[in-house]
Amino acid sequence: MKPALFFLFMLFSTFGMGQKVFSVDYEYRADVKVYVVDAEYRADLLVYKVKSEYQAGQNDGKWFFVSSEYQAKKKVFFTDAEYRADLKIYFVDSEYRAGWKNSSKKHLLY
Predict the structure, then answer these.
(1) Which of 4-18, 31-45, 72-86, 93-107 bottoms out in mean pLDDT, i.e. has the lowest?
(2) Which residue stretches of the chain are H helix?
(3) Sign of dihedral through CA atoms 27, 98, 50, 70?
């Protein structure tokens, strides 16, 4: 019985800790300021937008955008100037391409 409970706990805790992101309207409300670059080689993180919450990764670039701020693990603000950003991202079209290119910035999304 105990192994089954442990398994269920681990299963549900994994679902709850995915990279759920909410885009805020004001810079001061964000945990991280993000700039979307126009080329993959300029990015710190390659991001793939997943279609459902359970597909969200564990700080591996697979983001699920939630509709409410309270559901998010991280609140991001998309800035229009690269120099104002904490993190530069590039959106990729394949899940397998998502991931960190500059792992020194990983702490920003923990």
Answers:
(1) 4-18
(2) 2-16
(3) negative
CB under 8 Å to 109, separation ≥6 — which residues?
19, 32, 45, 59, 74, 87
Q: Are 43 and 101 in contact (CB under 8 A)?
A: yes
Q: What 8-state DSSP symbol labels residue 86?
A: S
For residue 23, give the 3-state DSSP assignment.
strand
Per-domain residue ranges for the chain? 18-109
Beta strands in the chain (DSSP E): 20-23, 32-36, 45-49, 62-65, 74-78, 87-91, 99-100
- pLDDT at 6 > cutoff 50: no
